[in-house]
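Letters spell out the chain; the tokens describe the backbone. To illustrate:

===
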Amino acid sequence: MLERSGLWESPKDGSQKELLKAIPELSQIAEIETLVPYTQDSAELSLDNINQLAEVISQHREVFDGFVVIHGTDTMAYSASALSFMLTGLGKPVVFTGSQRPFMQIRTDAKSNLINSVEIATGSMDEITIFFGNKLLRANRATKVSTWKFEAFESPNFPILGEAGMNITFNLHNDKYAKPVQLDFRPFSNLHAAVSVIPVYPGLCSEQLTALLHSSAQAYIMVAYGAGNIPTSDHAGLLRFIREAQDLGKIVAVGTQCHHGKVTLSIYESARMVRDLGALSCVDMTGEAAIMKLNYLLSRYPDDHHVVRNQFELDIAGELTEER
């Protein structure tokens, strides 16, 4: 499956011949067929685009043994995280990849990324992943960390799934990091909820929060300090915002600005105040996974916030580490 990215700007007809002409090695690995759900810069990614990807993969589940999604790097972690929730139980490998340098440039990483991704997609790793810079990552644990390194993605709170060297080696899951078992395939392709992200920083004023409170957002992710700490003074207005958002029937979740570790709303007093007001914890989810998970839950269960609240703090697709 091809989408416009730094790796490959596919022709509108999704020419399979052009792809195999550029990278003939692919035909030695698998029988390739290309599909083009849309063609655009990845910075223009919309929920409709993600819905299209989920729909195309779902419709072709019985046709192909695996899928490779060529995607621009800037929003790859959002699309890949979203599909991990929308296509649980798919039972087929889905590998997102792309490149830091376009295919026709010298020293491009495009060719190796695609060859390795296709080989992985022919195997038995039946989950949504990202392959980049010789590393295979669980999609909803990955985040982009570099604008120029070939190792553009990392998995801060979860081990890598595999690595490409002379061979591709896969890491076995232990009980602590095992992906939840998904017995039934229940595809979903109707993301439509409005989720706003609020970074906490010195100088954030209550007037900004008031404007957000009366926006069309159905939920907010507050990106706090450390393990979930926020300023609690009346001047900051964050506690009042959480209280008023809850009164309006909106959901507030708390994430962290730190890449490693997790949100724990029971350690410090300010975090406990947030929890007591009914805010949820993003635990150790990446920002991309938290946003797309909340959007997915609100879209799938629009009339049942009890289910949304309950499911958000549970591990439903390997996206967070529950205490065991």
About this structure: The radius of gyration is 20 Å.
